[in-house]
Every structure is written in structure tokens, then in C-alpha cells.
Amino acid sequence: MDYLPIFMKIEQQHCLIVGGGAVAARKADLFIKSGAIVTVVAPKLGNEMTFHLAQGKIIWHMNTFSTALVSELPRPSLVISATDDQNVNLSVYETYRAQSIPVNVADQTDYCDFILPAIVDRSPMTIAISTGGRSPVLARYMKARLESLIPHSLAKVGDILGRYRQVIKDRVKDPEGRRYFWENLLNSGTFLNRVSKDQIEEACHYLEEQMAITSQEDYQPVGEVYLIGAGPGDPELMTLKAHRLLQEADVVVYDRLVSEEILDMARREAERIYVGKRSRWHKVPQPKINELLLRLAQEGKKVARLKGGDPYIFGRGAEELELLTEHGVSFQVVPGITAAAGCAASCDFPLTHRDYSQSVSFVTGHQQAGAEKIDYARLAQSGDTMVFYMGIKNSAEIQKGLLTQGINPNIPAAIIENGTRSNQKITITTLERLSKTIQAHQVKPPSLLVIGEVLKVREKLQQNLKSVSKGETLLEVVAV
């Protein structure tokens, strides 16, 4: 982050605006709404600032700013300079910066100790949006989007919750217990629906009913595990339910394939525990992960177990739940978009097509000791689109196994690295050249292997896209 998002109380505190034009007036308006005592220094005032003056909302010093004037002004908590004179702006910045007072020079981020964001006001709830000064237009665009999504009734919700906050605090001593109470109240829907219909008395009555059945001193949080499919990498492919549960979790246990963007969706206070595994290097063995989930849940914590892709497709999700069910721990499974579906969509080819393949096989390319080997004979006879997870290391064996069963050596093959992410890369080759291509391009996990005639559909789609001058959205390499 370029700036720390923070809400500052400036009620009845002195704040200074240098400049009397439209930009300065808009800045002054925010100070006024926040209850500040606003002083304006400017040789003249524009219409908007004159209106503030007429209403008695500002104190006007009819002067051009100078260092000599500073001693006549009250010491401000915040300063904004919004004039057309750069020398004045710099003088304001240097003068008050030397006194360790935060300064904002309008539209000049190099001279901003703080930034005034775009605001969605549902007081007492306030949502601030900032682009770090890079694009005020983008911030206003996001403000408009949020204004249309967030009901004005949330202002009343904030008032009601504030009214009962101390009551709940006195009733439920455990901080986590209080959080669960508020989360359950809001997630139920009943409370919010009544407020949205302006049924304030009924909403308060419902809150009090829930409060009456809430344990007091003996409150014991009940642990639960959320087995969440994080998808192939793109955070926008997470489901709404996954996002909601991630926000409720006390602890997030995550794999190597879970992106930073997805981890950032968790609430800030949640503990994060990494249990990722790499080829030939297992930081946390699977049995230890299972025991970790059990222990955390038995401590009364809500545990989000984040797994790349879908937890039930080569994700060992069932193994992790088995121990939980033996001990009676509650759990929820949230499916995720598996790598095959995500990569196929982002790379412009289907997994099935009536002209090429009527079925698809998901195959693990990583063979554990004692595990049953891949049935290449069945794959060769099926005509399936073949998707190999974790198959980079054993690509030569996969290639040999398929060719031995008589599959056409010229059948298309795709190697997809970092599927659905911003650095996604697809390399198109053939089965005959598969392992050499992987070696030549030094392909590393996370990568997916797709073999099948359906890849010909991508070629057609790409030709159509080029014919309408649509640019590529991913890096493609065609192996030769």
C-alpha cells in the first residue's frame, strides 16, 4: 500500500485550507462535514467557498499565504493547499511539514502526506476509496459502483448496532463470542431485511430476541472447518460463499497454489498458517495438516482450509475431513473451479466438443509410492481429452505411456503455466514433442498438461479473434 488507510477524528479541531476556488471548496466541505473548525486563507473566494462563508462554516483570512501569516493562524491538525500558484503551494508544504503537520497539496502526490479519498457515506459507516493519487477518475468510478450496490439503510443498521454494542459487550465477555453474535445476526438476513423495510422497532426486537438466547459468562465458541476451493489462481473465480466464509474465519490454513490476492480476502485479524508442499519437499506432511485442522477446530476456531482448485479434485479434501468426522467436528465444503476448467476457459478451448471429444479425463501425473499407475490403455481407447495435473516431472513417462498405446503422435498438446493468472503462459506442441518442449522451455510447476483434439478449437477461435483485431490476452508459445 502507498498510504495507510486511516480514519481521523477532527471534530472541533482546527484545519487549514489555502485557496478559495472550487477545488479548495470541495476539500473544505469534507472538513466541515467532519466537524472541524475550518480556516481559509485566500485573497478572494469563489462561489462555493462564499456559500460556506455565508453559512458561517469557515473562517476567512483575506490574504495570500506567507510564512509571516502563520503566527496569526491557529495551529492546524491538517493542512490542504489548493491554489493555482505553485510557489504558494510549495511554501505551504514546506512551512507546515517542518512543524510535523500533515499537508496535502491538491493533485500533487509528491507533496501529499495524506490523501482525501472518494467516499461512500452511509454514516456512521463510511467507505473510503483511493488509488494513491494515481487516478481520481477511477476512484470516482468505483464510488459510483459502490453507491449503487450499498443500500442507504445500512446507515440505520450502524446506528442500531452502535446502540446495542455496550449491552452485548456486558453480556458476552469473550471477544470472539461477541464477534460470532454480530456475524450471526447479520448473516441471518432477518435483521437486515427488517431495517431495509424501515421496520426499526421490529429489527430491534429481533436483535433482543437473539441476545436473550445468547450465552453469557459460559460462552464457548464452537469450532468449524471450511474446506474452500480457491480456484486456479484468479481471485475473481472465487465463489461468493468462499469469500464470505473466508471473511468469517479465525485461521486460514493455505497451500502453495493459493495466490496472495486470495489470501488478502481474509479478514485482517485472521491467523495465517502456510502448509504448502513442493516436489521432494513437504514442509507439513498430510497427517500433520489433518491434525492441525482438528486441533484448531477443537479450540473453538473457525478454520478456512484454502486449497488451490477444487478440494475434491486431487486436493486430498476427503482425507482431511475424515479425521474431523471421526471427532464430530462440523465442516462445510465449498467447491472451487478446478484447474482444468479454469485454464481451458482462459486459454480459449473447451474440454469437450462434439466434433472432437465427448468426454474428459482428469489424471494425476504425480505417482506416489504404491499408488496404482496410470491406465494408458484405457485413455488411448476412450478418445478423452486428457488433463494431467502435476505431470511436469513425469511428462516423459506420460508421453511414452500414451505413444506405446498407439495414440497419434501428432495429437495436439498444451502446457499451461500459471493458469488464469496475470502471468499465464500457454505453449502449444504435440504429444511426440511434449517432453522435449518442457525441457526446452524450462517449464516449472504450477503447470497443467492438456492432450487432445479439442485444442484445434482454440486455433480456430484464435484465427477468428485475429480477424476482428482483438489482441491476445495471454502469452502463447508455439513449440517447433
Brief overview, please?
The chain contains 17 helices and 20 strands. By secondary structure, the protein is of the alpha/beta class. The longest helix is centred in the middle third of the chain and has 18 residues, at 154-171.
Task: Please describe what this structure looks like.
There is one protein chain. With 480 residues, the protein is of the alpha/beta class. Helices cover 37% and strands 19% of the residues. A 6-stranded mixed β-sheet has the order 15-16-19-17-18-20, sandwiched between helices. Strands 3-2-1-4-5 form a 5-stranded parallel β-sheet, with helices on both faces. Strands 10-9-13-8-14 form a 5-stranded parallel β-sheet, sandwiched between helices. It is globular, with a radius of gyration of 30 Å.
